């Protein structure tokens, strides 16, 4: 395999997005979108940080890398359109294995009518997949973390803690296909999020590091307090049965579930429930927003007791403790 024959092997033979002018073939791609706002994000997956040869096959690496990016597009309320892929490839990876990474990306991309429009390929020591995505959203309807207001209902989609439990299943040989699939091939909440443009105001964030982190990001950005009830936070019975001493921690800070946490006025809450039903996305109330002094905070109510919920999920570039 060389760089150019590899690029030839992954070059799309056709494109789906009508706004595309130039795809994979020149120095850069070109698309034109005069009527909507453009949303863009990049997320990176690195061997031995986000996956290992043991936890994921090449297909899952591609799928999961694009899913993480689509989750950020969902968290902005946008509809996916394009992606670019930057690869660092160790010398022991074959073209067939890299083809599998792309097959994983394509399965999700075709579901959301996305086009691969470029990327970059270099050699290196550990596999690294960095994806840049573009999506569209109705003008001024991107959904920000800073939009929460006192009196709002806090909601969450799907179930939390599954991806962390799935990782544990893989590492310890526990055969729970549902949880393992939640870790390897998460389902970003695009179909729900793209329906949110009809709302006057929604705050939204996706759960990549754990809701303890993401709830705090909303609280800080909006300068409000989020009051969450642990008893309302959704999780599967599997994780509490399989991992009784650890699941509570994973529900709050396991991360990588790629669900959404958001807030909406009490008046528009029934409309969220309706939109979620149309999108086939489970959604539940998990708490309320209250006024804050200066900086915002998150409180967790559990068995009648209240505690501060600090950021506790996955954080990169942490200083080593001695
Ligand atoms: N190395 C970087 N250079 C520039 N911007 C960055 C870098 N890393 C993160 N960001 C920006 O910081 C913000 C938060 O990033 P991140 O925590 O990764 O968000 P998310 O959890 O949604 O992926 C985003 O606006 C992101 O684009
Ligand atoms: C082998 C392995 N070890 C540990 C983890 C757990 N893990 C790695 S990164 C991460 C957090 C999410 O990734 P990040 O790069 O922080 O995404 P972002 O916040 O930028 O969306 C978690 C929980 C994993 N997925 N695989
Ligand atoms: Mg990120
Ligand atoms: Mg995010
Ligand atoms: Mg992160």
From TrEMBL:
Residues 150-296 form the PurM-like C-terminal domain. It comes from the Bacteria. Substrate binds at residues 50, 256, 314. Mg(2+) 2 binds at residues 43, 72. GO terms for molecular function: thiamine-phosphate kinase activity. Mg(2+) 4 binds at residues 27, 72. Mg(2+) 5 binds at residue 209. Mg(2+) 3 binds at residues 27, 72, 206. It catalyses: thiamine phosphate + ATP = thiamine diphosphate + ADP. Its EC number is 2.7.4.16. Residues 26-137 form the PurM-like N-terminal domain. Mg(2+) 1 binds at residues 43, 120. ATP binds at residues 102, 119-120, 145, 208. Pathway: Cofactor biosynthesis; thiamine diphosphate biosynthesis; thiamine diphosphate from thiamine phosphate: step 1/1. InterPro entries: PurM-like_C_dom, PurM-like_C_sf, PurM-like_N, PurM-like_N_sf, ThiL-like. The keyword rRNA-binding does not apply. Keywords: ATP-binding, Kinase, Magnesium, Metal-binding, Nucleotide-binding, Thiamine biosynthesis, Transferase. SUPFAM superfamilies: PurM C-terminal domain-like, PurM N-terminal domain-like. Reaction mechanism of ThiL seems to utilize a direct, inline transfer of the gamma-phosphate of ATP to TMP rather than a phosphorylated enzyme intermediate. This is Thiamine-monophosphate kinase. It comes from Halobacillus campisalis.
């Amino acid at each position: 395999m060389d760089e150019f024959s590899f690029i030839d092997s992954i070059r799309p033979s056709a494109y789906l997005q009508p706004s595309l002018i130039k795809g994979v073939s020149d120095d850069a791609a070109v698309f034109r979108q005069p009527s909507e706002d453009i949303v863009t994000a990049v997320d990176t997956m690195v061997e031995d940080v986000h996956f290992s040869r043991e936890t994921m096959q090449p297909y899952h690496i591609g799928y999961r890398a694009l899913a993480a990016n689509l989750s950020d597009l969902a968290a902005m309320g946008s509809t996916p359109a394009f992606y670019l892929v930057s690869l660092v490839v160790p010398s022991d990876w074959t073209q067939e294995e890299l083809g599998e990474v792309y097959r994983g990306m394509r399965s999700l991309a075709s579901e959301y009518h996305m086009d691969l429009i470029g990327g970059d390929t270099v050699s290196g020591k550990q596999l690294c997949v960095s994806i840049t995505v573009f999506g569209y959203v109705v003008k001024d309807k991107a959904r920000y973390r800073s939009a929460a207001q006192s009196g709002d209902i806090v909601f969450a989609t799907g179930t939390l803690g599954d991806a962390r439990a799935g990782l544990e299943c893989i590492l310890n040989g526990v055969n729970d296909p549902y949880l393992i699939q939640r870790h390897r091939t998460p389902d970003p909440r695009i179909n729900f999020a793209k329906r949110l443009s009809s709302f006057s105001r929604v705050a939204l964030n996706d759960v990549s590091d754990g809701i303890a982190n993401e709830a705090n990001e909303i609280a800080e950005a909006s300068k409000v307090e989020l009051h969450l009830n642990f008893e309302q936070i959704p999780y599967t019975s599997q994780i509490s049965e399989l991992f009784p001493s650890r699941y509570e921690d994973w529900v709050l800070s396991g991360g990588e579930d790629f669900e959404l946490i958001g807030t909406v006025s009490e008046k528009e809450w029934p409309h969220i429930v309706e939109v979620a039903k149309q999108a086939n996305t489970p959604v539940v109330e998990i708490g309320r927003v209250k006024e804050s002094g200066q900086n915002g905070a998150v409180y967790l109510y559990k068995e009648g007791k209240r505690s501060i919920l600090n950021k506790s999920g996955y954080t990169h570039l942490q200083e080593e403790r001695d």
